[in-house]
Amino acid sequence: MPMTKYLPSKLSILTAIALVSIQSLAIAAPEPTATETAQPTIASLNAALKENPQDIDAYLHRGILHAQLQQNIPAIVDYTEVIRLDPNHALAYTNRAAAKLNMKDYRGAYVDYTQVIRLLPEKAITYNNRAYARHQLGDCKGAIADLRIAAELFRIQGDTYNQQRTLTNLKAFQRKR
């Protein structure tokens, strides 16, 4: 089965997300109130979770805030709660893997990136990141395999910049083998 089977649906999701974020769409919208433009804080998210302990978005955003503050353990706890509530939440796995990489938990990052690949097999950057975790674990052969897949996906997706960066890393990993 070609790896591009799911590419159109994943790209359409990403396109929809990108379109929603375009500020020009908000030209006809009324001016947002101060409450609507306020960024969530850890305290406001704690309050939201007190009201609704099942609020996946609150856990996710609180995890992101913890990660921005380099608070990896609380971030991992929040991402883990998102995953408990929604076992197929690819962004929570991705963010938790990044926090684990920051803590040098390469095995944990590898496991989480593998889950993201199971959920989103066309996401090139995930193969690239898993290659780094594999390399740190001493799995040079696996890292090279992941970089090859990442380079091909970047090529298919027309991302020549990241394709070239990946190919450079691939050559470096192959020399170290």
Quickly list its features:
177 residues, mainly alpha, Serine Threonine Protein Phosphatase 5, Tetratricopeptide repeat, 2 domains, 10 helices, 73% helix, elongated, disordered N terminus
CATH homology group of the largest domain: Tetratricopeptide repeat domain
By CATH, the topology of the largest domain is Serine Threonine Protein Phosphatase 5, Tetratricopeptide repeat
* Proportion in β-strands: under 5%
Shape: elongated
- Number of domain units: 2
For the record, the CATH architecture of the largest domain stands as Alpha Horseshoe
Distance between the termini: 30 Å
Overall number of strands? 0
Q: Give the helices and strands as they follow along the chain.
A: HHHHHHHHHH
Q: What's the main sheet like?
A: none
The helix fraction, in percent, is over 70%
CATH class of the largest domain: Mainly Alpha
Radius of gyration: 19 Å
The unreliable regions are 1-30
Number of helices: 10
- Helix/strand-derived class? mainly alpha
Average the pLDDT over all residues and give the rounded result.
84
Keywords: Repeat, Signal, TPR repeat
Pfam family, one: TPR_8
GO biological process, one term: receptor-mediated virion attachment to host cell
InterPro entries: TPR-like_helical_dom_sf, TPR_rpt, Ycf3
